[in-house]
Design brief:
The chain is built from eleven helices and two strands. With 235 residues, it is mainly α. A two-stranded antiparallel sheet has the order 1-2. The model has no long low-confidence stretch (mean pLDDT 87). Residues 17-84 form the HTH gntR-type domain. Pfam families: FCD, GntR. InterPro entries: GntR_C, TF_FadR/GntR_C, Tscrpt_reg_HTH_GntR, WH-like_DNA-bd_sf, WH_DNA-bd_sf. GO terms for molecular function: DNA binding; DNA-binding transcription factor activity.
């Protein structure tokens, strides 16, 4: 006798993320949070024990992080947490400024009220995460804010370019969001971008986005250089 079962009752569900992806997230987060600091050696044996995964997975994770620029493989020393230089940071922010300024201008010129609503929702999430001291949440909500900025004006190619830099951008953000008054000044600058878009002021939106990125670049460079960025703030 054949028992009639719906396919869904015996289907093996694939986990949302593989073990490799989970391990990758953990090591990336450990670098962003400062648990692993620039220059620290990343010893495979130790990572296997800390993560509870095989050496094969650890090696795959380290190779992936090397491709993202977060890990460097030095002769006679092995994998270390990469040191991001001030010049590289400036170049990343130059690209951000050019693309985000363009997207902000286009959003303002589009005259679509749903853009403002979506940006405000993302900004509310950022502020909520700051109140809860949820720094990973701040990073995720900030990425969501910029995704709205690009997707609402169909600039998917530009967003793809930004995504290629997302890991290094978030690595920089993980430094800047911990500086004094970050929870106030960063969202305030993003609010100015939204207000210009609400007014339909393309040039104002462009300038607000550029000011935001320029300020962020100054903070990041100061942190990398070991200086105090107490008078600067951005996300």
């Amino acid at each position: 006798m054949t028992v009639g079962l719906k396919d869904s009752t015996i289907k093996v569900e694939r986990p949302a993320k593989t073990l490799r992806e989970l391990a990758l997230d953990k090591v990336r987060e450990a670098i962003d949070s400062g648990h692993f600091k620039p220059g620290d050696r990343l010893v495979e044996r130790d990572l296997c024990a800390q993560l509870g995964v095989s050496r094969t997975i650890v090696r795959e994770v380290l190779r992936h992080l090397e491709s993202e620029g977060l890990v460097a493989n030095l002769p006679n020393k092995g994998p270390i947490v990469a040191r991001l230089g001030a010049d590289e940071a400036r170049q990343i922010y130059e690209i951000r400024g050019a693309l985000e300024g363009m997207a902000a201008r286009l959003c303002a010129e589009r005259g679509d009220s749903t853009i403002v609503e979506a940006l405000e929702a993302a900004l509310d999430d950022i502020r909520q995460c700051y109140r809860q001291k949820d720094m990973p949440g701040v990073l995720a909500s900030t990425s969501a804010f910029y995704q709205v900025l690009f997707s609402k004006v169909d600039r998917h190619v530009a967003w793809g370019i930004v995504n290629l830099l997302t890991v290094r951008i978030n690595h920089l953000r993980s430094m800047t969001i911990k500086t004094d008054n970050r929870n106030i000044e960063g969202p305030a600058q993003m609010e100015r971008i939204i207000e210009a878009i609400r007014r339909g002021d393309g040039e104002g939106a462009y300038r607000a986005a550029m000011d935001h990125v320029t300020s962020a670049a100054a903070i990041a460079v100061a942190v990398i250089s070991g200086q105090s960025p107490t008078s600067l703030s951005s996300t």
